[in-house]
């Protein structure tokens, strides 16, 4: 890249121009920005208690979103917790369904 101040070609990884000492665009881009809150992870976490399958899907989406630079890992823990809770919920739901189906089978037999 080229320095926006003096126009001299500088290394792409440089944060400051070695020629004039002015901060490069990379420096500006890496400046700390307030990360966005991950609503998707929060919603997914809450949903995981009531609607396991939907909660699981929303939590996976929330986890993917937390990996985006704008979110800076926000909601990652919440999304993982939601995935665990909804996974357990889904297992119980499947067991519950099996019991009902088995019960129906017995009733119909
Ligand atoms: Zn320069």
Describe this entry's structure for a reader.
The chain has helices at 25-30, 39-50, 52-66, 76-108. The protein has 109 residues and is mostly helical. It has 2 domains: 1-31; 38-108. Helix 2 (39-50) runs antiparallel to helix 3 (52-66), helix 2 packs parallel to helix 4 (76-108) and helix 3 runs antiparallel to helix 4. The relative contact order is 0.12. The mean pLDDT is 89. Bound molecules: zinc ion (ZN).
Structural class per helix/strand content?
mainly alpha
Overall pLDDT metric: 89
* Terminal CA distance: 77 Å
Give the % helix. Answer: 55-70%
Ligands bound, unique: zinc ion
The total domain count is 2
Residue stretches low in confidence (pLDDT < 50, at least 5 long) are none
Number of strands: 0
Describe the sheet with the most strands.
none
Based on CA inertia axes, which overall geometry fits? rod-shaped
Number of helices: 4
The rounded Rg comes to 25 Å
Strand content: under 5%
Helix/strand order, N-terminal first:
HHHH
Layout of secondary structure:
Layout: H1 25-30, H2 39-50, H3 52-66, H4 76-108
Helix pairs in contact: 2-3, 2-4, 3-4
Bound molecules: zinc ion.
Question: What is the gist of this entry?
Answer:
It is built from 4 helices and no strands. With 109 residues, it is mostly helical.
What descriptors fit this protein?
single chain, 109 residues, mainly alpha, 2 domains, 61% helix, rod-shaped, binds zinc ion
């Amino acid at each position: 890249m080229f320095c926006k101040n003096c126009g001299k070609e500088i290394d792409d990884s440089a944060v400051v121009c070695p020629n004039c000492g002015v901060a490069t665009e990379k420096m500006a881009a890496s400046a700390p920005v307030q990360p966005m809150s991950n609503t998707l992870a929060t919603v997914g976490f809450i949903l995981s208690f009531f609607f396991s399958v939907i909660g699981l899907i929303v939590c996976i989406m929330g986890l993917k979103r937390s990996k985006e630079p704008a979110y800076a890992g926000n909601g990652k823990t919440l999304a993982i917790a939601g995935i665990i809770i909804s996974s357990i919920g889904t297992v119980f739901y499947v067991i519950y369904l099996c019991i009902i189906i088995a019960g129906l089978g017995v009733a119909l037999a």
